[in-house]
Here is the input.
Amino acid sequence: MQIGANSLLQEMQSLSGEIKPSGFNSGFSSPITQQVSNTSGSDFGQLLSQAIGTVGELQANSGSLASRLDMGDTRVTLSDTVIAREKASVAFEATVQVRNKLVEAYKEIMSMPV
Here is the structure.
């Protein structure tokens, strides 16, 4: 089954509006979606680097919220921490899947006869 990039992006954008909890203000404004929609003049390496940087930021934010919650910071709620952790987890899993597809494509290209 082939999934088009545009239909996948539209579905992700529609779902991102549904999962934003009210009152959650961690500074996350869906940078991955912004990067994907602004791909007109960017090369693949830059996009991949930015996406990996965004995943790192999500993981750092998740770790920071978890540490603050463990330390007893009253400004951080359990739900904010769990949501940040899940966002980081989903972003990491997506990155792993992209890496797997790239490795698979590379192996396929390398096994082609010249």
User: Anything to note?
Assistant: Confidence is low (pLDDT under 50) at residues 20-28. The helical segments are 5-19, 31-37, 44-71, 78-110. The first helix runs from residue 5 to 19. The chain has one domain: 29-36+43-114.
